[in-house]
């Protein structure tokens, strides 16, 4: 660094004193270091509210995993208690994905219209109603309705939770915080697998209420997404939310201007329609992207997860619980890595 500075000075047109110029450059470097230190301090100050907001949001991710992992460990008990056939239980297990599909399709418009926090509240309410329906079920119809409701709730969660986290996080923490969404999904499924081996299926349904109620309560203490507030023109609320997330004494003017400039740029762009995706320039990347997702699902991972316990149990009476717990632990480890 020092050699480069001397070269710049020696090659420069200024005939002033070299020592003075070097001192000035060093002072500039110290000022830059001080600015970086201030940014780091500001980042630490904002972590309290930022981490609280993220922790509240990922309750939705945990709820997602709980719903996905519910059907595997309780299959034998539900079929015995409610006298369900294999096809009836298969419908119960798979109808979750149908609800999630509709939830995912509608999630974008819902989150843009009523806000990120309200969308998460709505999703939590769907999940609560679904879990209560499952808990009270005495036949397959109410069981399926409850499963469908939880599916719709997690379908909305699948979009709004990572979007909310990405919008509230500063650039230096955005990548790390958004990965918590996937980690908590897997943890939720794993906890459901493990709890399902030691509690009844009705009790397991009640435990599914915990993440949703935690989310509903936590949302009262965290701000709305500043980017969404800026997008809908709520200037005062936008600045207030950004200040809460970054810290009371942190200067947010530069970030606020950056967010507003980005939103103005997005507004100035021409609106894109669905049919525009099928233009010749987009056909190849569209086929690759959709194809990857299709092949991922055709791998049958959801089917394995929904019926893991009975799959292991078919290998022997003692393999059911051991296999389910091992599957739960491996899920978390592989996702973390």
TrEMBL record:
Topological category with respect to the lipid bilayer: Multi-pass membrane protein
One function term, GO molecular function aspect: transmembrane transporter activity
Keyword list, A-Z: Membrane, Sugar transport, Transmembrane, Transmembrane helix, Transport
Residue span, Major facilitator superfamily (MFS) profile domain: 53-337
Cellular compartments per GO CC: membrane
Main location: membrane
TM region positions: 89-107, 119-137, 149-168, 180-198, 204-222
A Pfam family it matches: Sugar_tr
InterPro entries named in the record: MFS_dom (IPR020846), MFS_sugar_transport-like (IPR005828), MFS_trans_sf (IPR036259), MFS_Trehalose_Transporter (IPR050549), Sugar/inositol_transpt (IPR003663), Sugar_transporter_CS (IPR005829)
Family: Belongs to the major facilitator superfamily. Sugar transporter (TC 2.A.1.1) family.
Listed name of the protein: Sugar transporter ERD6-like 16 isoform X1
Lineage, top ranks: Eukaryota, Viridiplantae, Streptophyta, Embryophyta, Tracheophyta
